[in-house]
Amino acid sequence: MRLLVTGGCGFIGSNFVRWVLANHPEDEILNLDKLTYAGNPENLREIATYPGYGFQKGDISNSEDVAEAFSWSPDAVVNFAAETHVDRSIASPEAFVTTDVLGTYRLLEQARQREIRFLQISTDEVYGSIERGSFNEESPLQPNSPYSASKAGADLLVRSYVRTYGLDAVIVRSSNNYGPFQYPEKVIPLFLTNLIEGRKVPLYGEGKNVRDWLYVQDNCRAIDTVLRQGVRGEVYNIGGGHELTNVALTDAILEAMEAGRDSIQFVPDRLGHDLRYSVDTSKIKSLGWEPEHDFQAGLRETAEWYKAHEDWWRPLKSGEFRRYYLEKYGDI
To answer: Which part of the chain is the NAD(P)-binding domain (predicted)?
Structure first.
């Protein structure tokens, strides 16, 4: 299979590229990535010369870049390309609408014209917050941030192309991912790297918000399963089955790093911070997928990876990121 993977230099995208090439060596991948601050070619350095891998720098919201990528004649598209950080979407929502909505439209148009399969990578955040129980794939979309609203808009575009044009498209909505190569603005790598640096960890509000945690390799297997087995027009939730309050997550990180609770610095809560996300994963499990990683073991593996790869993340935490961090949290 010839796969056009957009956003393949990001966290989940780069893990997916490596996973596919390791498990389907006959497949070929063209990686279309704009290389924004979170898209890092170093994530794929070891496969840059792999015979089944190619790279094109380009923006999915640019029709010429997208047309050039599709001239490679892919059999399917997996769209990871997105602006994804909630805090940044609150401060600067336009980039999220441009990439997540307009960019998805550009890809859908090419996929429609060429009649190829399209897999949209979405998020459980499109459902909004839930106090009890879990969202299933039929739950209404009630996004509460510019980020989740832009992803919900993209999902609805995909749905419309299935219904209107008969496009062979599927959507996956995953819970919070963690693992190697995650940009250090996200909570787990931020806390791990801060602790390595001897800094405190900034915890929003009282830490009562609840998230489900999914190891990135489990997510890659799930995405690949849906790509090859998913039914046209269907949505599949992906979750790790490990719900934790943010303060419990922080305690687990402190334990993995052998640090004390005096390393916690409580900071003002995020605007419109959703209390709890939870998804029902019975639908994707019917395809034979199950998460394999225990959270505690996965967190320990992740902590060891960041300890061993300071040369990867330290440059990322300088420059623009450092300015963003100081503005957001102060010098903690």
So the answer is: 4-302
Catalytic residue among 53, 147, 178, 325: 147
What is the average per-residue pLDDT within 177-200? 98
Determine which one of 33, 100, 125, 243 is catalytic: 125
Exactly one of 28, 65, 83, 124 is catalytic; name it: 124
Q: Tell me how far apart the alpha carbons of residues 332 and 325 are, in angstroms, rounded to a whole number.
A: 9
- 125 catalytic per annotation: yes
Give the C-alpha separation, 190 to 182, whole Å. Answer: 9
Residues sharing a CB contact under 8 Å with residue 184, sequence separation 6 or more, in sequence order: 190, 193, 313, 316, 317, 321
Clarify whether 327 is annotated catalytic: no
- Mean pLDDT over residues 311-330, rounded? 91
Q: Which CATH superfamily is domain 2-177+214-238 in?
A: NAD(P)-binding Rossmann-like Domain (3.40.50.720)
Ranges of each domain in the chain: 2-177+214-238, 183-211+242-275+294-327
Which whole number is the average pLDDT over 141-166? 97
Q: What mean pLDDT comes out for the span 11-23?
A: 98
Average of per-residue pLDDT across 301-323 = 95
Q: What is the CA radius of gyration of the chain?
A: 19
pTM: 0.96
Closest listed residue to residue 171, CA positions, set 233, 82, 240, 113: 233
Angle at which helix 246-256 crosses helix 295-308, to 10 degrees, equals 60
